[in-house]
Amino acid sequence: MPPNSTSLQTTRDEPVLTVKDVYKTYTLNKGQTLKAVDGISFSVMSGEVLGLVGESGCGKSTLGRCLLRLHDVTSGQIIFEGQDITHLPERTLRPLRQRMQMVFQDSYASLNPRRRIGDLLAEPLKVHGTVNGERRSASAITQRLAELMELVSLPRAALARYPHEFSGGQRQRINIARALALSPRLIVADEPVSALDVSVQAQIVNLFADLQKQLGLTYVFIAHDLAVVRQISTRVAVMYLGAIVELGETDNVLHHSVHPYTIALTQAVPRPVVGTPQHAPLRGEIPSPVHKPSGCRFHTRCPAAQARCAHDAPQLRPIAPNHEVACHYPVLSHN
Amino acid sequence: MTQPSDTRPFSAGPWTSALRSLLRNHSALASVAVLAFIILASLCAPFYAHHIAHTNPFLSDVAGTIMLNGQETDIMQPNDNPLHLGLSPIGPTWQATYFLGADSQGRDIMARLLYGGRNSLLISFSAAVLCLIMSGIVGITAGFFGGITDIILCRLMDIMWAVPVYLFAISLSIVTITSGLQIGPFVIEADNLLIPIVIIALVYVPYAARPVRGRVIALRQAEFVTAAKCLGVPRWRIILHDILPNVSTTLVVMGPLLMAMALLAESALSFLSIGVQAPAASWGTIILDGEGLIYTRPMVAIAPGMAIVAVVLALNILGDGLRDALDVRDTSRRE
């Protein structure tokens, strides 16, 4: 499907999604608490793709699920299209769910193995059965299913098959089709390509990019692969231990990184050029989110840490237009 | 995207492929044949009694005679001990009349065996089905809703579990068999088959509901259930369309094994004369009739015993076959 360049003139003034100071805490036994999401705020504008990167266990998937109220947040606010949805009961939330959808990482686990693709894709259409007060007819559903198959470039015959008959990439297309069924405005994609072969990853990322342009979608795109994020994102947020350490336009964050953690991440990407100097990798392991370091959460591994970092937690602050960082001593000379 | 190699318009559903694999399993097919034979024979009980054996298996006939090898022979014959004390019923004649001999009331064992089979099979089948329905409801409710619902249901089942199955069934039977049951305007007579059916179904609920609950807890956390929530699918619809089809295999596999256990329980209760009530027969009551004749006419007890063994064995083999065919552990699900 060629990207339709004329249809994309979406307004950028009103955020589709605003997250204010969100915490998600799990209580473990022995009275310990795990702060999976530790005070996160950001907004996603209409038509924008926010890439969310970080190591495994940094809380990015938990955050993604909190955004769509699949988990309830411990505190903070989630505002979708100007409406606070943080504490909406499921019944009130249901109509809004048509406008915000999710694509999951495991393409097999997210499709019920005992239902045909057509049945799976028709489910959201049947649940949200009324359009402008009129019931969706059976023929309207059939027609919509055909449109969806075309959008994700799958043959219509796929509708009569079961999930296990498809490859990982094809199943991810089915998942995307299901997320698109109700014409949402926002899609949270939770590592949608990390379980796929590299060759297939590119196809699926391209599909995401094409659909975004064609349908004017807004994405929160969660990934741990910087190359994937660089390809699709307009803005990038880098997460470390449940908090955003650097946030800004893709080029700023990935090519002019100022946070020592982001720099370490970008330098860890292997470069296929002979003679590229090797940078010292980060020392140590990511600390346990149960026992977070005091002060700046990165100071235990930071090459630029100073005495202040051990007790004084830095806040996210603007350092340049469209570029924010949570660090007392950002590396400004880099690049 | 390439189309899956096979071009049939509809691919085989999970039930169709399970049936195909069951049809390739010879021991399962043999057990189905044995069961079909026994069930058919039991269904033919009135035909056998009226047109082949020419007896009424519910009336005692201690003074009667039959023609055997051209001689008139007493049904109750003097014992062959030195003093010729007491009478024994006629042994197996291996002819149409009294094929397997008579019991101490002079009734045809073969005819009673067929009539008894009707009751035994009907009770064990109905009890198994009823038990599966109840366990399905209890297991899905406890597993899906969790929390306080789960705790209450599990504790109730623990209480039932603490009492040995047979002891529990015996106590319930003794209460109901003396007075029948009165539920509001409905009176169930003491000799109604519903009583053993309900009792046997009830005592096995904890055994069948527990695996269902475990499976549902696993399914509740499955990503496709999260995906359904994300689409705004109401909970009852998730239970019906996503949980139930995946639990149904567990239920179907348990079916034959439950029926085997129910048959044994029914026979035990009837043997203790608190199951099927005279003059009706079941395999358990015939064994009881044969108990006093075990030295002189062992066939009276052996014949129903063999029938029970055959059915229980066949059901177990069928259950194994079903488990393999339905692939409950889903080992082959990923490519």
Automatic annotation (TrEMBL), chain A:
Gene Ontology, cellular component aspect: plasma membrane
Keyword Cytoplasm: no
Coiled-coil positions: none
Pfam families given in the database record: ABC_tran (PF00005), oligo_HPY (PF08352)
Molecular function terms from GO: ATP binding; ATP hydrolysis activity
Keywords: ATP-binding, Nucleotide-binding, Transport
Biological process, per Gene Ontology: peptide transport; transmembrane transport
Domain of life the protein comes from: Bacteria
Subcellular localization: Cell inner membrane
Domain ABC transporter: 17-266
Membrane topology listed for this record: Peripheral membrane protein
Similarity comment: Belongs to the ABC transporter superfamily.
Name of the protein described by the UniProt record: ABC transporter ATP-binding protein
UniProtKB/TrEMBL annotation, chain B:
GO biological process: peptide transport; protein transport; transmembrane transport
Occurrences of domain ABC transmembrane type-1 (ranges): 117-319
Domain of life: Bacteria
Listed PROSITE patterns: ABC_TM1
Major place of residence: membrane
Pfam families from the UniProt entry: BPD_transp_1, OppC_N
Membrane topology field: Multi-pass membrane protein
Compartments it resides in: Cell membrane
Record's keyword terms, sorted: Cell membrane, Membrane, Peptide transport, Protein transport, Transmembrane, Transmembrane helix, Transport
Transmembrane segments: 28-49, 121-147, 159-181, 193-209, 243-263, 300-319
Cellular compartments per GO CC: plasma membrane
Family: Belongs to the binding-protein-dependent transport system permease family.
Protein name, entry field: Peptide ABC transporter permease
